[in-house]
Write a structure and sequence with these properties.
With about 350 residues, the chain is of the alpha/beta class. The protein is built from twelve helices and 18 strands. It has two domains: about 280 residues, 3-Layer(aba) Sandwich (Rossmann fold), CATH 3.40.50; about 60 residues, 2-Layer Sandwich (Alpha-Beta Plaits), CATH 3.30.70.
Length: about 350
C-alpha cells in the first residue's frame, strides 16, 4: 500500500516549519545521490495568477537536494497558447516576476522545451494516446521531484500531480494532441455571426463572414479545443463531446513520461491551498472553492492525487464536478489502470 504523508494547513501555525518536518518525515530526498541532476517540476504561475506554489517552499526543496550533494534546477515547459509563458524568454521573465529568481530559490529556472518550439522525445503509452512527445530535458536528468498545486480545472475537473506531468512535461505538440482528444461539434445553421467566439479565442481561430461562421476557412488544426467558446455562444452552435478523453490523455502522457524518467526516479509533493475553480495557467483563475487543506508528499503518483481528492471531498463531496462539470477522478482511475500507482494508500500525519 502506498504511503502519503500529510500536514494540515493552518494559519495559526508556521507552515514553513511544518513543511520542513514533512520533508524530513517523508524522507523524500533519500533517493537522490551525490552529483545527480535533479529537476524540480513545478508551475510558476501565469502572469497575474497568485495561487501557484510559493517560491519559499521551492527553496526548501532546493536546499534539501543540495544537502545530498546533488544539482537541482526548477523547470516547466512553455504553454501552447500565446501569452506570458509561450516562449522561453517570456516564461523566464514571468518566473522571475512571480518570485522564482535564483536569489529566492537558490537554483536556476530552466525551460524544459528549449525556446519553446523544440521537438521532444517520442514516448509510448498503452492509454488513449499511443505516443506523445515528452520534453527532451527529461532524457538528461537523473531524478525528478514533481511539485504540484492542487486546484480546479475547467476541462478535467481538477489539476494535481497527474495534470502537472501530463500537460506540463510535454511539448507544444504533446499539449495540442491531448487537448484535441476532446471533439468540437457545430450547428452552423444556428449561427448568427455575432463573433463572441472570436472574442474569447486567443489564437483567433473562428472566421465569421456574412453573418455566419465559416468553418471551411479556419485553421482548425491549430485549435486546442479548450472550449472557452462554448458558454459564450448564446445560440448553442458549439458543443463538446468525448470530454472524458482529456483526463485519460493526461494519464497516457504520464505513462510516457515515466517510461523516459523511470518510475522509481520520481517523487511527488502537492500543495492543497489557494484552491481555485480554475488552474494556474489562467491569469484570472476564478474564485476560491475550498478552504486550504494542507501539503502532501509521496512516491506514488496515483496515491497523492487520490489522497487530495479524498481530503477535498470530505469537505465538499462534489466540489470539482459541480464547478467544472466533469468527474475529477477519471484521470486517477486511468492512471491506476495503466499501472502508474495505487489509489489505495495510508495517510500519515
Amino acid at each position: 500500500m502506498a504511503v502519503v504523508y500529510f500536514t494540515e494547513w493552518s494559519f495559526e501555525k508556521d507552515m514553513l516549519s511544518r513543511f520542513k518536518r514533512l520533508l524530513k518525515k517523508s524522507d523524500i530526498f533519500s533517493f537522490i545521490q551525490k552529483d545527480e541532476i535533479v529537476a524540480i517540476k513545478t508551475h510558476v504561475g501565469e502572469y497575474g495568477n497568485l495561487n501557484y506554489v510559493h517560491p519559499i517552499f521551492i527553496r526548501q526543496i532546493v536546499d534539501g537536494i543540495k544537502a545530498r550533494g546533488a544539482k537541482p534546477f526548477v523547470t516547466d515547459t512553455t504553454s501552447y497558447y500565446n501569452y506570458k509563458r509561450y516562449n522561453a524568454i517570456d516564461h523566464i521573465e514571468t518566473a522571475y516576476l512571480n518570485g522564482f529568481s535564483y536569489s529566492a530559490i537558490n537554483a536556476p529556472f530552466i525551460v524544459s522545451d528549449g525556446l519553446g518550439f523544440q521537438k521532444g522525445s517520442v514516448s509510448f503509452s498503452k492509454g488513449v494516446l499511443k505516443e506523445i512527445e515528452i520534453a527532451q530535458i527529461y532524457e538528461e536528468v537523473d531524478k525528478v521531484i514533481v511539485v504540484s498545486h492542487c486546484k480546479g480545472h475547467p476541462q478535467v475537473g481538477f489539476g494535481g500531480a497527474i495534470k502537472n506531468i501530463g500537460m506540463g512535461c510535454t511539448t507544444k505538440g504533446g499539449k495540442l494532441l491531448q487537448h484535441r482528444t476532446v471533439k468540437m461539434e457545430y450547428k452552423i445553421e444556428n449561427c448568427n455571426g455575432c463573433g463572441k467566439c472570436i472574442s474569447v479565442c486567443e489564437p483567433k481561430i473562428p472566421v465569421v463572414r456574412d453573418g455566419k461562421r465559416r468553418l471551411e476557412e479556419e485553421k482548425e488544426w491549430e485549435c486546442m479545443h479548450c472550449g472557452f467558446c462554448v458558454p459564450v455562444c448564446e445560440r448553442g452552435v458549439i458543443s463538446m463531446k468525448d470530454k472524458d478523453m482529456l483526463p485519460k490523455a493526461l494519464a497516457a502522457a504520464c505513462e510516457a513520461f515515466l517510461s523516459v524518467v523511470g518510475k522509481d526516479n520520481v517523487r511527488y509533493i502537492s500543495f492543497a491551498n489557494n484552491i481555485s475553480m480554475w488552474c494556474d495557467c489562467c491569469s484570472a483563475p476564478r474564485k476560491k472553492i475550498l478552504d486550504d487543506i494542507g501539503i502532501l508528499a509521496s512516491n506514488d503518483l496515483v496515491a497523492i492525487d487520490q489522497a487530495f481528492l479524498d481530503l477535498a471531498h470530505s469537505k465538499d463531496k462534489d466540489v470539482f464536478q459541480r464547478h467544472n462539470e466533469i468527474d475529477p477522478e477519471i484521470q486517477v482511475r486511468e492512471a491506476e489502470r495503466l499501472g502508474l500507482g495505487s489509489s489505495s494508500y495510508m495517510l500519515t500525519k
